[in-house]
Amino acid sequence: MVANNGTLSDALRFCDNMTVAPMDLMEGDVGGDEYEKLLTRGFMLNWKAEDCSVCERSGGRCGFEWSSYHFRCLCRDRPHWFLCFITWFIPRLFAAFSVVGFAIFVILVAGYIWRSALSKLMVWRKKENYHNVENFLNSCGTLAPKRYSYSDIKKITNSFLVKLGQGGYGCVYKGKLSNGSHVAVKVLNESKGGEEFINEVASISRTSHVNVVTLLGFCFEGHKKALIYEFMPHGSLEKFIYKESSLTDHQFGWERLSQIAVGIARGLEYLHRGCNTRILHFDIKPHNILLDEDFCPKISDFGLAKLCPRKQSIVSMLNARGTVGYIAPEVFCRNFGGVSHKSDVYSYGMMVLEMVGGRNKIKPEVDGSTEMYFPDWIYNQLELDEVGAHNGIASEAENEMARKMVIVSLWCIQTVPSSRPSMTRVVEMLEGSIQSLQIPPKPVLSSPPRSGEDSSAIESSSMSIL
């Protein structure tokens, strides 16, 4: 704009570049040479451009080319393809990054909120679990075993120096109390909740029997949980029932094997009938039978146990629990019947069958290529009176012991729970005369013939499930 008192020559002195635009003068306008008057009053500048619609439909853009003072369709004839590409690509790239960035932001925020909520839930559950255990221990009063601190546990085990064993629950270490008594200290994994701990303490603290392991104390400090048991110098029964064991010098004779079977039966009878509250173990197997210095069997590991009133025959249970190969049919399929103390009877029967067959790790072969379900095979041997033929039995007395254990076991593993004997009846049969025993019906459950390639399925029977 030119000042009122200025001249065009004054204005032009301040301009670096100047381009003359063609103008069409309307009627009555001043002459084309009177530029000052024209600029002062203003004028209409008109120009003519190409029709850009055709250009845009072809994917081009209209642009002014200063060298020729003409509008051109850029991009269509590709004189400025890079500029056109940038003007087309950059906005779309920015939009794409904006969408992706917003999506990532939303995901990160949602993840943070979810993680925070999950962390708070875990903390709440741990606190709830802690309070449940503390309330339980307080309710036990003087009946609860002695409580130790975690520093006491480290001192008793000499900082966990000697490991006796390990399982899904945690590790077992050898320890020594201040009075000189040797103990076994089971340290539970941090991942294990309070249910296993409560089950163990609630079950064993109510027991006092020669065939049930004694709980001497416990530790509970937040996520640090430990149980102190009497020490069993001979470890578990599992190590003694197979000839492949490294402890072949301590291989049991049939008399001792029979005594162990009776001892375990007495322990289960006590849990089912001798306590004010019936205790169902749900994990009877050789690994959970410990042997003291005199090879007296003691039932251990009550982490899966359930308590129920003595008059209550059926217990409710949401999930199957136990060890594959020893679980009663009704535990994983309610169509077979209700879950009760008869489920422990089934596990006991399978364990005793393993004790009988395990002395020579029997793998019955049929036609040299398939393997039968072991209870079926041993039932056939019982009918043929050939139980002792595969077990190194040298006398009639040993043959009678083995035959009696097999008959009792087959009664225990009957498919229908009501067809199984109680543990009281099991003790009577084991201690009675074999002439008074009847051969039970053949077990209904059996596995189809399998090739040698997948025969490891029966061998992997120590996997715990919950």
Automatic annotation (TrEMBL):
* Limits of the Protein kinase domain: 158-445
Q: Name one GO cellular component term.
A: membrane
Q: Which residues cross the membrane?
A: 81-114
Q: Where does ATP bind?
A: K186
Keyword Disulfide bond annotated? no
Q: Which GO terms describe its molecular function?
A: ATP binding; protein serine/threonine kinase activity
Would you indicate the residue range of the signal peptide? Answer: none
* Keywords on record: ATP-binding, Glycoprotein, Kinase, Membrane, Nucleotide-binding, Serine/threonine-protein kinase, Signal, Transferase, Transmembrane, Transmembrane helix
Q: Which Pfam families match?
A: Pkinase (PF00069), WAK_assoc (PF14380)
Return the annotated region ranges for Disordered.
Answer: 439-466
The record's subcellular location field reads:
Membrane
Write down the InterPro entries for this protein, in alphabetical order.
Kinase-like_dom_sf, LRK10/LRL21-25-like, Prot_kinase_dom, Protein_kinase_ATP_BS, Ser/Thr_kinase_AS, WAK_assoc_C
Residue stretches of biased makeup (Low complexity): 454-466
Q: Which SUPFAM superfamilies match?
A: Protein kinase-like (PK-like) (SSF56112)
Q: How does it sit in the membrane?
A: Single-pass type I membrane protein
The similarity comment for this entry is: Belongs to the protein kinase superfamily.
Q: What is this protein called?
A: Protein kinase domain-containing protein
Q: Which organism is it from?
A: Escallonia rubra
